Amino acid sequence: MRPEPNPAERPDEGTGKRLWDSVDPGNGRIKLERRPKAATLLETLIERAIQTTGISAVALVVLIFGFLIREGVPAFAEVPLGNLLSARWYPIEDYYGLLPLIAGSLIITVGAAIIALPLGVATAIFIAEIVPDWVREILKPLVEVLAGIPSVVIGFMGMLVITPFVRVALDIPTGLTAFTGMVLLAWMALPTVVSVVEDVLDTVPSSYRDAGLALGMTRWQTIARIVIPAGKSGILTALMLGVGRAIGETMTVMMVTGNAPRIPRHPFDIFQPARTMTATIAAEMGEVAQGSTHYHVLFAVGLTLFVITFVVNLAAASVVFRGTKRAERMLS
Amino acid sequence: MVLLGGAGCRRTSGPGSPAGGATTLENKGSDTIVNLALAWAERYQELHPEVRIAVTGGGSGTGIAALMNGTVDIANASRAIKEEELATARANGIEPHEFTIARDAIAVIVHPSNPVDTLTLQQISDIYSGKIDNWRDVGGEDRPIVRLSRETNSGTHVYFLEAVIRLGDADDDTLFSADTLLMPSSEGIGVEVRQNPNAIGYDGLGYVTEDMKTLAIGLSPDGPFWEPSVETVNAGQYPVARDLYMYTAGAPTDLIETYLAWIMSAEAQKIVLDLGFVPVEGTSDAP
Q: Is the predicted ipTM greater than 0.90, yes or no?
């Protein structure tokens, strides 16, 4: 890492006073000097504004969670647990089995992650480590443009192009399958994975690479044995963020996965239709009578989704946290 | 006339009362009918600028519930009113009157290359409930059958379940096979049927285009089989056709009566045909 100039040694502009001089020798804290009144007022206002936005962001999440609980929890009282855990989802005849929906969301998300991770990491390594700078300046924005394509456009392309292709290429009854959903979701998660991994590889000190090359390792050995292990935690974060993006995706999966609520019993069932939690909420919420059992169950589905996303994000955050600590240890 | 109409409306409906000199009719219900109801309302308002007709969708059940609560003047429904709904309405002191305003044929559609031309209702029921899994079993090629349906919130889905899969038997509790693909839109069904030779789907006759094949449907394996069309529906031959209804609270009066009478006119029924529905013959379908 480039050595940052120590801020404490920088002379305070104008007065020539050093920051050292304001440190209280008693407790080591910086003594605050009185500022002009107008400036204090302005600063207080700005501080308050920032505080409000910060708190409202957290409050919003809490409110959403509270709302989901209020509307979703009654479902567990209205529908017997045996029904909720059954394998049949057909709400207009009071079959509320959540398992096919949870299974659908999970296999599509995991599948998308399995496809997106190697592709994303390889692309990131290519951009960060291999190509010359000018190619990198072109490739990086291009990958980011991919993130900006609306999901409905990807879904429509999937329906018209990928679906028939998958059906013919794999010789399966229909192309509207969980697998098609995985491919499209992987494609959508790719920009996230590439950007995050690329940024992480960027922070791996170049002295590591130099050391590897100086020891006589090839470029590939340096990348595979030094750079990637050094950026491991970042790659995990990228995976989590990609998964978070994939599990919440609605429009694309609704258009290409066929939405048949069936539980996969066999690995080859990824070539069968599946129905995700998000698609179920999107398709059914519009027509459901407010306050009905079906309405509460849909909120329970939303609650489940919220909890899963929350856990994934929490896991991602803890990985990042652990990563920083290790980096600090290495540098000290 | 207009004043009387306004008074009539105020009696039956709270929010549907006169506004700004014009009289407003509240018309709500089935999403199948909503485009038709809108087209009628637009044309009628051109002919009668003093009347405003507010059309909203929401589903047949929503419309009938609103009629029972006295918040609409006319409820649209793609199914007949249920016994329980009738009982609730009577308990609220409202006697719903039924008008058949159009007919809708549900076409069963397949890929143009599919050699199957005819199916019996029983065969369609067996296909959708999962008893028949291969086109070979209904006289086609050795191909797996991919079943396509609308989502469960669609009135067409419910009609198809009751009239075709359960063959109209109210005690039957057969369901769609869990493998049935539930498409969020008519367009979704159309795209898949056009490109997949394994697929079978169903949709309103108005949504069928040239590049898909409609099957002729019969009641017995020996025939006869009927293609869905205006003629076979009106002759009562095509078996998968339903009536579309409008309901009023009590016998219609004044403005509502005039509007419903206009809906039965040749001009209004021409709009029915333009939108892909089947016009009702004659004007005396009211019970």
A: no
Q: What is the per-residue pLDDT for B1?
A: 32
Are both A127 and A273 inside the same structural domain?
yes
The owner of tokens 């009918």 is B33
CB B243 within 8 A of CB B145: no
In chain B, count H helices and then E strands. 10, 12
Residue A120 is assigned to a structural domain of this protein = yes
Q: Using one digit for the tens of pLDDT, what is the confidence trace for B126-169?
A: 999 999 999 999 988 899 999 999 888 777 888 899 889 998 88
Domain interval for residue A270? 74-331
Chain A hits for B193, Cβ within 8 Å: none
Asked if residue A30 and residue A89 are part of one domain, the reply reads no
- What's the structural domain count of chain A? 2
Q: For the packed helices B60-68 and B83-91, what is the interaxial angle rounded to 10 degrees?
A: 20
Both A1 and A102 in one domain: the answer is no
Residues of A with Cβ-Cβ distance to B62 under 8 angstroms: 289
**pLDDT tens figures, A224-275:** 888 888 888 788 888 888 888 888 888 899 989 989 998 888 888 889 999 9
Domain membership flag for residue A49: no
A–B CB contacts, 8 A cutoff, strictly below: 76
Q: Look at A91 and B175 and tell me if their CB atoms are within 8 Å.
A: no
Q: Is residue A52 part of a domain?
A: no
Q: Are residues A303 and A189 in the same domain?
A: yes
Residues A5 and A78 in one domain: no
Alpha carbon of B97: minimum distance to chain A alpha carbons (Å): 24
- The answer to whether A171 contacts chain B (CB < 8 Å) is no
Give domain status of residue A69, yes or no.
no
Q: Let me know whether A87 and A22 are in one domain.
A: no
Q: Which residues of A touch B171 (CB under 8 A)?
A: none
Which residues of chain B have a pLDDT value below 50? Answer: 1-20, 283-287
Calculate how close chain B gets to A76, using CA atoms only, in Å. 22
Instruction: Report the alpha-carbon distance of residue A320 to residue A315 in Å, rounded.
Output: 9
* A258–B158 C-beta distance less than 8 A: no
User: Do A169 and A309 fall into the same domain?
Assistant: yes
Tell me if B152 and A284 make a contact (CB, 8 A cut-off). Answer: yes
- The confidence score (pLDDT) of residue A22 equals 66
Helix-, strand-, coil-residue percentages of chain A, each rounded to 5: 75, 0, 25
Question: B148 CA to chain A: closest CA distance, Å?
Answer: 9
3-state secondary structure of B100: strand
Biggest alpha carbon distance in chain A?
A: 80
Is the domain of A222 the same as that of A92? yes
